[in-house]
Amino acid sequence: MFERHSTTAHAAYNDLLRSLLDDEVAEIRGTPTRVERNGKHYWYDTFRVGSDVRKRYIGEDSAPLRARLKRHADLRARAAERRAHRSRLVRLLRAERFLGTDGATGSLLSAMAAAGVFRLGGTVVGTHAFRLYEGELGVRYGFDQSASTDDVDIVSFERLSLVLQDVVEPPAQDVLADFDFEAVPSLHKGSVWRWRQTRSNTLVEFLTPSFAESEDLRPLAALRVTAQSLHYLNYLIADPIPAAVLYRSGVLVQIPRPERFAIHKLIVADRRLEGADSLKAYKDRMQADFLIEVLSEDRPDDLAEAFAEAQARGARWRERIERTLSRLPDAANRLEALV
Questions:
Q1: Same domain? 71 vs 23
Q2: CB of 193 within 8 A of CB of 230?
Q3: pLDDT for residue 274
């Protein structure tokens, strides 16, 4: 059985996340403007720099964002007060034994957030995302679940990256260079999607969903990087959610929905059995098993919907899921009970 954080700790995490979301709007310099592109609506901060009119992407239209935009003047005026409050919340969460992040990873994610990587569609996946479900779900992690990896994986949709018509500043590769990352050569001359830190061997990878049979390199215009395309990622990062990293006064990032993460891990675990990353399949199964246990109790409808959607995507999807579940009888029983 999993262990829960106190209601006080869970409330503090949600307060921290709410404050970080408020700060995204507090940074507006000009006039909030709604723009329609491809049938969707997006908000931009429209302002002048000399004689030029600039547009800075804020976010996709939603009721919570519209409510914040109405209060943006007040939010801007109270930014310093909120930052101090967030620092107190981070201290409280650490005292409640919430997982923090190491200084190297926290400072890197903070720099990426400041450049706009997550605001412009970047989604943290992998173990760093898994650890952040502690706050989203209000559950404690044991040693096996809390074991971290130095690697940072960031995924974004190529199409969304093009539609937004805004870019990170400074470029992601410049941010990485400031942290002593060097480009890892790829088979495609002039295209880089992986960076390795010279002093620690930490790896940062940029990924994007593949909508073709091949898994090639694709540009992410908004992030100003090239990304490796992979199958199944379109399912994983659909409708992502915000998350708060416990570093300094908090860092706002974006992660997949936990139910999609759990089902995607069932697929990835089977896929890795076929390649050089087979040792990582155990970790994939462990993370899926843990999340399915929590979600089957707390969010059964969300889990059932994500499971049904994955199964409906084709025989290959179902085969991979079934093969992994054959190794996870408890998870298989929980998912079967939802159908």
A1: yes
A2: no
A3: 67
Asked whether 68 and 75 are in contact (CB, 8 A), the reply is yes
* pLDDT digit string, tens, across residues 170-207: 999 999 999 999 999 877 777 889 999 998 888 999 99
In the block, residue with structure tokens 């931009």 = 44
pTM of the predicted structure, to 2 decimals: 0.94
Q: Which two tokens stand for residue 189?
A: 């001359």
Q: Residue 146 CB: number of other CB atoms within 10 A?
A: 13
Q: What residue ranges in 61-179 does DSSP mark as E strands?
A: 123-125, 152-155
Residues 6+ apart with CB under 8 A from 71: 25
| Largest Cα span, the chain | 64
The backbone torsions φ and ψ at residue 239, rounded to the nearest 5 degrees and listed phi first, read 55, 60
Judgement on whether residues 191 and 270 belong to the same structural domain of the protein: no
Domain that holds residue 262: 258-339
Last residue of a domain, one of 256, 283, 316: 256
Beta bridge partners of 194: 205
Burial category of 243 from C-beta neighbours within 10 Å (exposed 0-12, middle 13-18, buried 19 and up):
buried
Q: Which amino acid is at 223?
A: L
